[in-house]
TrEMBL record:
Keywords: Membrane, Transmembrane, Transmembrane helix. SUPFAM superfamilies: MFS general substrate transporter. Belongs to the major facilitator superfamily. Proton-dependent oligopeptide transporter (POT/PTR) (TC 2.A.17) family. The gene is LOC102718996. It is a multi-pass membrane protein. The chain crosses the membrane at residues 86-104, 111-132, 152-170, 199-220, 232-251, 341-362, 382-402, 502-526, 546-565. InterPro entries: MFS_trans_sf (IPR036259), NRT1/PTR (IPR044739), POT_fam (IPR000109). GO terms for molecular function: dipeptide transmembrane transporter activity; tripeptide transmembrane transporter activity. This is Major facilitator superfamily (MFS) profile domain-containing protein. GO terms for cellular component: membrane.
Amino acid sequence: MAVTESLPAAMENGESKGGGDYTQDGSVDLRGNPVLRSKRGGWTACSFIVVYELFERMAYYGIAANLVIYLTDKLHQGTVEASNNVTNWSGAVFIMPLIGAYVADAYLGRYWTFVAGSAIYFLGMCLLTLAVTIPSLKPPPCDGGVCPPASALQLGVYFGGLYIIAFGNGGTKPNISTIGADQFDEFDPREKMHKMSFFNWWMFTIFVGILFSSTVLVYLQDNISWSVGYGIPTLGLLISISIFLAGTPLYRHKVPQGSPFTRMGKVVAAAVWKWRVAVPADAKELHELELEEYTRKRKFRIDSTNTMRFLNKAAVKDGSPAKWSLCTVTQVEETKQIIKVVPLLATMFVPCTLIAQTNTLFVKQGRTMNRHIGPHFQIPPASLGAFVTLSMLVAVVVYDRLFVRAIRKYTKNPRGIPLLKRMGVGLLLQVLAMATASLMESRRLSYARRHGLVRTGGVVPLTILELLPQYVLMGVADAFLVVGKIEFFYDQAPESMKSLGTAMSLTAYGVGNVLSSFLLSLVSRVTQERGDPWVTNNLNASHLDYYYGFLTVLGAVNAVVFVVLSSKYSYKVESTETIDIAMDVKGETAKVQS
């Protein structure tokens, strides 16, 4: 597939008055003017965005990492109910970006959608901090095993804060990483190489924020107060927003190009409407705008392909008076690019369900084990999540700095290995992690039976550190899967739908968390009816090892489906490998071609 770049009009007139060169990817400032490469973008602009993400992830995981403990200990919810509330909220957090991506691509642009989402996000954090601070907004502590349930007002304020955060996250999450990637020009070889490393270092920064939350903030929440544990991330979010806004003069922006859903719907409807029309053998007979039109609007033109040939009918000129039924070749090809990744997106749901266990059942599992180190210190159960982050950090650095540099000499792939192969390795490691969790839980249950703790539900005399293998394996798996997934959906999305591509990768988390709630509820209900429940409030009397085994099998089946689909997938050709740009610079014509 060939992509023809449309250059800003200012570029066609030569260099800038200051002697610098303009970006070639249609980047503009907030007023819509072309931008100089030397004045905006690059790692200088990215530094503000990356620091924002560091503080924002600290804020988000300051709430998410220990949420299941707050729901069970302070709001007095059961294990299944609390776990499902965590995954339902996480599902909302990661599904809302679809709305944010739509608003960004169709109306406000990424920058202003992000700013609006940040304001809403901060409001939710403030409400949560009040909910854990004001005594009347919390139920009384348990007294002699009797735990008063939270009132409707108390639940309303706390969950209201959570879901306001989810709504605000819809505006921030699909746009912030995309804004970061937009700071690098695809058509400049040096900047393109930097962009390929951007997602690795982007995730590295995220993991540093998560690491702080999983250790320092979780400890403060468990041992000092929830008010302090929530107040610090709220302040951190305010600092992160301020840092992002401070970098505004340095950012490159992309012009909103209309709703991707509307364009794709129009293509599908037009193709169905003209289902009897024959597609001409010569693609030049299909409807397409002149290159100058794309140049004027700073958009990209894409040549026709024969994949999903039926959709080409949408660009056939049939003389119909209905203007809606005639689409350009570029609109058709953009739709094809999105449709191609949907089956692979579906195979990301189960892996995201497995990831969800680290903040729910893994934490409750650790709560039943010996957490003492020395006579005075207890490890907060949610802090073991730090080892997911640590192993991920190490794996990302080793992958980017050692593995990629070594393997690219043989594969000739600038990424080292294709993105789908990277994701496949992550899927296999995830299956291994869940199998390890199942074996470890079986060992924990045998200790509980041996020490007569099945009925009482007491602490098993087994150190919580024995859970480390499942956390470390999950972290290494995430280094391959999570980073690869974000980069894949961003990279394979059309240039005009990058926010949608990022939102799709996040939506997998949302669906995966909702699927986790569904599976846990279903398995709990079915096994309860059969008289041998797998998951109850007393994990010593449960069969959590069976549930982990079930998830292991589910993950293995999903991995097989992914391998089959990925083996048939054809990547979108890199734009800079097929582009032929004619530029008039100082009266001379220069061609940029791979």
